[in-house]
Amino acid sequence: MPTDQxxxxxxxxxxxxxxxxxxxxxxxRAPAAPAEADPVPVRRSPGLPLATAQVADNLDLxxxxxxxSVYPSVLSVARGGxxxxxxxxxxxxxxxxxxxxxxxxxxNVLHHGQLSKDRIVELAEELTRTGVxxxxxxxxxxxxxxxxxxxxxxxxxxAGIRIGLVTNGTQIHRHxxxxxxxxxxxxxxxxxxxxxxxxxxxxxxxxxxxxxxVVRNMRLLAERKAGRLGYSFLLMQRFAADGSLEAxxxxxxxxxxxxAKEIGCDYFELxxxxxxxxxxxxxxxxxxxxxxxxxxxxxxxxDDSFHLLRSSNWEAVRQGADPxxxxxYTTCAVAELRTTVTPTGVYVCPYHRGNxxxxxxxxxxxxxxxLWRRADTSVIDPSTxxxxxxxxxxxxxxxxxxxxxxxxxxxxxxxxPFI
Length: 419
Fold this sequence. Notes:
The chain is of the alpha/beta class.
């Protein structure tokens, strides 16, 4: 639980998502999934709104597995079964990026090419013939730099597949019609609240600050969006060889959150700094207090149209949790529900991009259906290979519990396919 003085009012996405589910269950008797029900194919919900109804549900990864159309697949995986396709695909269209961020967590996989125009369009068409319910365009590189990205978006959208986008924001204006009308959400990685700090952590390859363009693009999208728009803030510090602090964005949490609301974003998300191996970087008490104080001020800005979200890894840092997260299970169930497709290979999850051990195929050499049929999603052992704070951990624990003798569960209507 939060440790700051206003713990009872501090926003927590996971607790909120759980309360939403509990409230729904209290108001209506939920259908119970049969203990021995046969797996059924996932059906997309064409009537589901483009945007998630409750912004807090974006991070309620455990609550999402109890959705009526998702649970049968989850139960099948809990029993050790394989799915005909994952429910969600993280798709890296390209490894090319127009920024040169010194702390980039994907630096080892950048600038290794991209999926060809013909292959990525063909892949999008292949996904429409599977049980995939949602695709997240991400990277790796900057997904909007791929020249076929509009065609990919159109293909997926018209097939009823929900689309999310993680972007640095520099190319939004070039694709505004598609992003505004066809995406469920767009999350822009900004990591600063001022033009002075932005180029310290997100410098462009051309040398000029892209902050004014990114903010302008976000305003443009905010005015036209049918889905959700998020402002992502990754806490970062840079230290000199002697240990002295060279650069920090910790002082700009409030300024960035205030700007997010003024732009017209639906939410502001705070995330913890990670090292190159995805371990959280624990902070001294003063730094945590600095962020907490700003967060308390930001809470006064929350209303029905603007929400604050904190990632699980920042929750771990501010609570002083060990960066090493023990895991008692040896197979990642989520790897069967969600996979990561990149130009250099298909991997069990984004944490393991570029890790040969976690590579389950090459989308350039085979169709998605054939690749998935042959894939071994159990190649990673979380107890030894995923010792970092993993956003999927709570879901894996929950799925593991479904493998027990009592396999019935109270389900809720579909609310978000991005499990």
